[in-house]
């Protein structure tokens, strides 16, 4: 029997209600009580991980230090709690079934009939317990919606854990209380039906988080409590907010942290959320803003660049500056509209991605930023496109990436396997944290304030060092390299020729926090302030 406390968060009525933010907020409320928290996201889809899924389907892939490609909610967990996630903090039905089938093929089940119960549910339970580590509270988010066939093994597994850990589990259910304009009233029936489905499979929620677009009157809370078999104080409003960082504060004001601890028989000591209140207050009262154009290829779905968008907002906080994000579809950029789409921007950022679609637009945007002296930041694919643009337009090379044109005579970007002989389908990406050494006197070193850094990667193409000499002679500065000098990690231009031009092969956005903004984003926003000439 584990002494760890488990908080299981499920969702009902429809997907997209914000279970990830709810879990992150619960963790944030528990930390000031002195508790160590961790998280686990259980996704019901059959993909082994989201690494091969389209950003349009799934949003961004969040990468951990240990190289796991995970659900974007792990980014929310890290940003709210500051706890570093690992591959143990995310699992899927695909991974669970893969493990079970591999064991069956090895004969580990000794000829038994392999079934969802107990074999699949036992593996899910093992995954949950394996995510505990040193945490005193494990907050488990069950993806999908109650009633989905895919979610049933996970719900059965957490039911079993609650029986094996009586008194150490709390069930939180996130549901929807919609407003029906035709009758002018909030409707509780969807919540009632959702809870009924939970109870039919043996799970009674202890707390309901009710998503609403307006105030949730006490009489509605009382009605929900009566029909869903829980005290009225455990029916908590989860209203729409302008800023996701307000969510834990709204939960705190409704007593969520105290209710959870009391349900577990633990002493409530009060929460010191002053830093979080100050953060939200600052973000609500910016007197000045800068506008950053994000030239990407997945801009139709904002979650495709979730960590990036948050990191840019974080970068403005030390300057007390708001950051407006303008999403620009790179396929739409052509020589005739560059000025109209980019000239009003205070900074241009080209983010990561895969494939050749939209590359011409990205390269045009980079050339525009370079020649018009607009602060430019390239991340991963943006770094690679910056190298290609410089090689073409400054060095005069017929340059390209092996990803886009393998027959190019000047492949300034090429595949990792060409350097290391890695050709296995699952081994041709650089994933997770890698060290980088910075050049003394460079912009990169000025930003970080130290010579050796560690950042997270997710890519399979690299800077081709065969072209290093011609590029550096033409003014491109290599300011960050791997310690073994195999990989180029950061390129920049001299401040004498451009106010702020930097590209990095890694993804610094994954390590930015609202209370600890990443230094590269802080520096980039400072450059946009200088460019806009905002007085202080």
In short:
By secondary structure, the protein is of the alpha/beta class. The chain has 19 helices and 23 strands. It has two domains: 5-279, Rossmann fold (3-Layer(aba) Sandwich); 286-532, 3-Layer(aba) Sandwich (Rossmann fold), CATH 3.40.50.880.
Task: Describe the model.
The protein is an alpha/beta fold. The protein has 19 helices and 23 strands. It has a 9-stranded mixed sheet with strand order 13-12-14-15-23-22-21-18-19, sandwiched between helices. A 7-stranded parallel sheet has the order 5-2-6-1-7-10-11, with helices on both faces. Helix 1 packs across helix 9 and helix 12 crosses helix 19. The longest helix has 15 residues. The chain is globular, with a radius of gyration of 25 Å. About 1% of the residues have low confidence.
Note the main attributes of this structure.
35% helix; 2 domains; Rossmann fold; 536 residues; 22% strand; 19 helices; alpha/beta
Topology:
Elements: E1 5-11, H1 19-30, E2 37-43, H2 55-58, E3 62-63, E4 69-70, H3 73-81, E5 90-92, H4 93-106, H5 116-130, E6 137-142, H6 152-164, E7 169-176, E8 179-180, E9 185-186, H7 189-200, E10 207-212, H8 218-228, E11 235-239, H9 247-253, H10 256-263, H11 274-284, E12 289-296, H12 306-316, E13 322-329, H13 338-342, E14 347-350, H14 359-371, E15 376-379, H15 381-393, E16 399-401, E17 410-415, H16 416-420, E18 430-438, H17 443-448, E19 452-459, E20 461-463, H18 468-473, E21 477-481, E22 488-492, E23 501-504, H19 519-532
Parallel strand pairs: 1-6, 1-7, 2-5, 2-6, 7-10, 10-11, 12-13, 12-14, 14-15, 15-23, 16-17
Antiparallel strand pairs: 3-4, 8-9, 17-20, 18-19, 18-21, 21-22, 22-23
């Amino acid at each position: 029997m584990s002494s760890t406390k488990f908080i299981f968060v499920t969702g009902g009525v429809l997907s997209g209600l914000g279970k990830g933010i709810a879990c992150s907020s619960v963790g944030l409320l528990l930390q000031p009580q002195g508790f160590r928290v961790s998280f686990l996201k259980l996704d019901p889809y059959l993909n082994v991980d989201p690494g091969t899924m389209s950003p349009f389907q799934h949003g961004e892939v969040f990468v951990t230090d240990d190289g796991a490609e995970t659900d974007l909610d792990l980014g929310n967990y890290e940003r709210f709690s500051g706890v570093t996630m690992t591959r143990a903090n995310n699992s899927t039905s695909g991974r669970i079934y893969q493990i079970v089938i591999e064991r069956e093929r090895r004969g580990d089940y000794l000829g038994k009939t392999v079934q969802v119960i107990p074999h699949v549910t036992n593996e899910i339970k093992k995954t949950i317990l394996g995510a505990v580590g040193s945490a005193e509270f494990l907050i488990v988010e069950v993806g999908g919606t109650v009633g989905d066939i895919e979610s049933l093994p996970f719900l059965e597994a957490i039911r079993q854990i609650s029986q094996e850990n009586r008194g150490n589990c709390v069930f939180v259910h996130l549901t929807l209380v919609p407003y029906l304009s035709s009758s002018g009233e909030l409707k509780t029936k969807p919540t009632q039906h959702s809870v009924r489905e939970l109870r039919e499979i043996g799970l009674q929620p202890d707390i309901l988080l009710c998503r609403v677009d307006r105030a949730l009157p006490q009489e509605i809370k009382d009605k929900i409590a009566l029909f869903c078999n829980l005290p009225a104080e455990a029916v908590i409003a989860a209203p729409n907010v302008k800023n996701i960082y307000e969510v834990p504060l709204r939960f705190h004001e409704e007593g969520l942290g105290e209710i959870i601890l009391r349900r577990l028989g633990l002493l409530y000591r009060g929460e010191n959320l002053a830093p979080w209140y100050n953060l939200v207050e600052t973000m609500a009262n910016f007197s000045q803003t800068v506008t950053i154009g994000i030239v990407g290829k997945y801009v139709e779905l904002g979650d495709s660049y979730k960590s990036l968008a948050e990191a840019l907002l974080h970068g403005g906080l030390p300057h007390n500056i708001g950051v407006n994000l303008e999403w620009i579809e790179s396929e739409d950029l052509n020589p005739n509209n560059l000025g109209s789409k980019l000239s009003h921007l205070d900074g241009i950022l080209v983010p990561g991605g895969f494939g050749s679609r939209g590359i011409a637009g990205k390269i045009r945007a980079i050339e525009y930023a370079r020649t018009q002296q607009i602060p430019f930041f390239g991340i991963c694919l943006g770094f690679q496109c910056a190298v290609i643009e410089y090689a073409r337009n400054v060095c005069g090379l017929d340059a390209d990436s092996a990803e886009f044109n393998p027959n190019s005579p000047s492949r300034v970007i090429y595949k990792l396997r060409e350097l290391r002989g890695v050709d296995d389908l699952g081994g041709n990406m650089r994933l997770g944290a890698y060290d980088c050494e910075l050049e003394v006197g460079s912009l990169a070193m000025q930003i970080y304030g130290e010579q050796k850094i560690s950042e997270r990667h997710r890519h399979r193409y690299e800077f081709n060092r065969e072209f290093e000499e011609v590029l550096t002679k033409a003014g491109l500065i290599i300011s960050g390299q791997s310690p073994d000098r195999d990989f180029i990690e950061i390129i920049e231009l001299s401040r004498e020729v451009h106010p702020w031009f930097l590209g990095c092969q890694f993804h610094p956005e994954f390590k930015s926090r609202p209370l600890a903004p990443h230094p590269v984003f802080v520096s980039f926003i400072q450059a946009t302030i200088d460019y806009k000439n905002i007085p202080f």
